[in-house]
Amino acid sequence: MKSFPIAAMRFLLLTLLGVSSHNAFSQGIPSKEENIPFLITFSKKGSKSWGDDDNKQVFYFLIPKNYNQPFYIRVMDPDVGGENDEKKGEFNSTTKFTVYGGKGCYTDEQSRISDPEGDYKSGTMLASKAFGVDAKYDGKWYSFGPFDPSSGETIDEFNAHCFKIVCEGLSGDDGNLYRYFLSTSKEKNIAIEGANAFTFEYAFRLHDDANQTSHIYPYIDNDVVTMKQSNFDWDSDGAIRLISKTHKGEIMKASGDNAWAMSKVQINSGDQNSSADIQFIKDKNKKIKNNNVVFNVTNQYGKYLPFYSIPIGGVPKYAYKIGTK
Amino acid sequence: MSIVQSKILFVLYLACLPLLTFSQEYKLSDPLFKSGHSDFSPCFRNDQLVFTSTMPTQYSKKEVANIFYYNDGEFELVSEKLSSSLHDGPASFSADGNTICYSSNQNGAVSENQKLNIGLYFSTYVDGEWTDPIEFKHNSPNFSNAYPSLSADGKTLIFSSTRPGGFGGTDLYVSFKDDNGWSQPQNLGGKINSELNESFPFLHSSGRLYFSSNAGTRYGGLDIFYSDSLSDGWTVPDPLPSPLNSNGDDFGIVFDASQASGYISSSRKKGRDMIYPFTLQTPKSKKCESVAFEPETITFFEAGPESERDITHLNYIWEINNETFNSHEVAYTFNQPGSFPVKLYLRDSLLRDTTLVAEYDHVVKHKSDIEISYHSSASNDYLMIDKVHLSNNQNLNYVWTVNETNYVGRKCPLPNDKNAKIKLYIASNDEKLSYRCYEISASDFVGSE
């Protein structure tokens, strides 16, 4: 398997550093631009039809090299119980969050495979904690760290230190809904300027309010000619639509219950080196609640494209233009 | 200083430069008459031609100037009251013909150097006769004020003067009449005046000033120049073309209201001052372009980078010139030139919202080189040139022909006849008699409000 193109990632990070100032204090994951209420990871005994294909979720964090202060990876509502989480019978689940740094944390090719058989635990484990039903953490923040930025995997091409957090659903069958925040403080959410986060596969909860549209923003590098999107367990809840600089609103094939759906999109040169906006537009008539979906995108070589919580280059817009004849 | 002396004192400047071309062609006729004396400075009193001449009268046998009417070969003194024993004239009248301003030697006012200077005098026509002359209050025995030109309303006076403080020689000055009388004369400035002599002004009702000068002359002797009064001052004077200017002294010109005909005095033949009629020739042009605005239909469409596909959930709403259209493309007809806002809204049936996605101002240009507008005044309706879109927009001359009558300038009267034939000829002084011709449909304007 070919490695993820480092050159493209370098460009990506440089772009990120150049454009991220307006988002310097919005390093919540999911971000405000994504309008996703929660990430979700079901435990192993949970049915895939509930909206998680592999019972894990991996996120990478990029800490700029010029930042040398301790930082924290904060998790909102890490336990499996209470109001936010998805209950199947009685809460009986355990979820484990593990933070990795060091060599191979990102560069190990296997870590970037969406498939759970990959070595997504590569690197050096820096912290780990399992959460069950625990009112102490219900609806509250838990902070991993402090971490020394240099304990991450230093990637010169990114000009950053890379860390990884893996959320695994262990025992039980409930769904853990949670959010992250990359913070300079253990007690508060204080963003690190120039930092960002990305994943290669999103598993998230949609809003119950059908008027709310969620977004994720894959970065399309200049190697991408064709983009293949895969979505799981969308429950036919409306439309999944692509907007980019050259796509004004292409409807993508959407999945039903407990099923994958895939479709390809032709990428134009005008879309390269920029983000795309994948919109999850709920059917306003169905009023489906507690819908969870899994989503990933690959290029024509089968390589996974990263979704940045702060979209590189800003939220993409189609360039409408009035012509005359 | 006598009138003749002052003219003779002009230094002849024989320029070796090539003659300037001029766009307007004039036809100069033979002298109006041959008195055998010096006849010059024609002007109009209403429809009557008035001129100054040194021909003898029953009151003076000597070669002194007096002011005469000309009527089919007959001459008549304008008034005995306006004829002194010395030089009287040239003259200028207000548009109603009831005020005259004229030059005359200041009787008894001898300057320090023993010269009998010239002054300006006014008289009004009351009950069929001219009143006793009243002296211009800015006359002085120490310098001359001469060669007056009154504006049509009689409230602006341009004249020549040797008063101190000028650019040299004789300069042109202006004075304005208000409730306190005539204002202190103001020099017309360095664009008009030079270190040599500027004299014989004629202020046309269009605002164009004609005058003679021996500075920068291209034809020889005194040449006649013209300058237009704009909001930022006078334009740089241009010489009138041949045959109006000649290698003799050309001076004392008068135009009719349309500037299409007039009279000029000149010493071109044997050095004798005579008055010549002239008329503007209708310019010749093989082809005339229509200036009527033709409605323009433009189709607007979304021209972004994506090919048309898979957008059934997206609908366009166009807002063009404040009209709304729900369609993929819009063919819109603009019935007048101008700048019109065009906005494209996107109606997203999935999100159930409408957003403005593109906008710009569409400019509809008048395809003709010129833009003409209709105006109405208390006295008449007229057309006026608003804009000219030529590569060379400088020093343009405009000649209109309306039913074969010529008019010069930016505007012309609009006849109340939808079938009237109106043509406009435009040429630049920089071009060699190369006219552009535009045909104007009177029906586009007649009946406008």
Please explain how this structure is put together.
The complex is a heterodimer of chains A (325) and B (449). With 325 residues, chain A is mainly β. Chain A has one helix spanning 6-19, and strands at residues 28-29, 38-42, 56-64, 71-76, 95-101, 124-131, 141-147, 153-155, 160-169, 175-183, 196-199, 202-205, 213-216, 219-220, 226-232, 239-243, 250-252, 260-266, 274-275, 277-281, 292-298, 307-308, 322-324. Chain A is built from 1 helix and 23 strands. In chain A, strands 1, 2, 4, 7, 10, 12, 15, 18 and 21 form a 9-stranded antiparallel β-sheet that branches. Chain A starts with 5 loop residues before the first helix and ends with a strand. The model of chain A is unreliable at 1-25 (pLDDT under 50). With 449 residues, chain B is an all-beta fold. Chain B has 1 helix and 37 strands. Chain B has one helix spanning 3-9; strands spanning 26-28, 39-45, 48-53, 66-71, 74-77, 88-93, 99-110, 116-126, 129-130, 134-135, 145-150, 156-161, 171-178, 181-182, 186-187, 198-203, 208-213, 223-230, 233-234, 238-239, 250-255, 261-269, 272-280, 288-290, 296-302, 314-320, 323-325, 330-334, 338-348, 353-364, 370-376, 381-388, 396-402, 405-408, 411-413, 421-428, 436-441. Chain B is elongated, with a radius of gyration of 29 Å. Classes of the chains: A mainly beta (325), B mainly beta (449). Chains A and B meet through strand 23 of A and strand 25, strand 29 and strand 30 of B. Strand 23 of chain A pairs antiparallel with strand 25 of chain B.
